[in-house]
Amino acid sequence: MSETDSEREPAAQPGAGVASEGENPRKPRWRRVLGVVASMALVAALLLGVLPTMADFGEVWDAIRSLTWLEATSLLVAAGWNIITYQLIILAALPGLTLLRAFVVGQISTAVTNTLPAGSAIGVGVTYAMFSSFGFTSGSIAIASVVTGLWNTFVKLALPVVALALLTFRGNSNAALLSASLTGVVVLIGAIGLGALIMSSGRAAHRAGERIGAIASRLLRPFKRGPFQWGAGFVRFRLQSIDLLRRRWHLITLATVVSHLSLFALLLLSLRHMGVSADTITGAEALAAFAVVRLVTAIPITPGNLGIVEVGLAAALVVAGGEESLVVAAVLIYRALSYLVQIPLGLVAYIIWRSKKSWRSPSTTATS
Hints:
The protein is mostly helical. The protein has one domain (29-182, 249-367). 75% of the residues lie in helices and 0% in strands.
């Protein structure tokens, strides 16, 4: 329900009812095992094979050790604020939720997502089960999940456009960013138009769902998936989400934008503390690299997109003009404070959840 470079990536949404028709049996065990092995092999190849070729790790470690206590403290404060902003999104989308409960659920699900192959799907189940134990209905959880996922996607699509505008204003641009921006604009306009159509009436929502389901069925037929009939699911989504969006769309939008910009601020601060000045890589250039990598890694391939984000960000920032060892050091600090730190925090959150028996709804307590 949140986002992370899959530091907190909003994964698939539980129980939304949009795509319930046309489900298929689980993949054979050997295919799941093969997927896990391939994912781990990719992580190893990127972190142990590719990243070390980009910089001398002795110089990288020296750069990290050069951090002053004041710089380290400011990075920890920025990382703490970034984690808080993750919770603001779901707080806006799930009225009645408290900050501590949002933190506990978010950190546990993110820890699962960041460590386990296929962790995104497992994290969704954890999120759904924990919010249910607090007494939230399945419908409210599903709608909050779908809406926050959509808003995160909208921001990811918009960021390259913002970065391109800033670079163009400064008289600087590049082909990769232009391509990502054009893709973002087209998809964003299409998504907003589709959303407006779905919200306009139940008949329009049903028609859009059926047409999109038919397109998905044709595209996925070679993979023996489908057929999909999503008309009824789109109608249910409209009915369940329209009140939430009318009352809280502005809060959800603000929280999502703040969360993404806070994550970028952590990257920018890491660069500056590693000695990558604004004369070397401007804020707009750093935003461009951040935006493109966020968009490219929107669908997680490895747990938390481990390896992909590190190599992608480092490569983009080096191309922008950064010194290899300083850039890699900054990226590793950024990922340690946005990805790695989520794992022990997940354990802390689990201990809190286990100790807070009073949080469980009566029906959940009776069942357990």
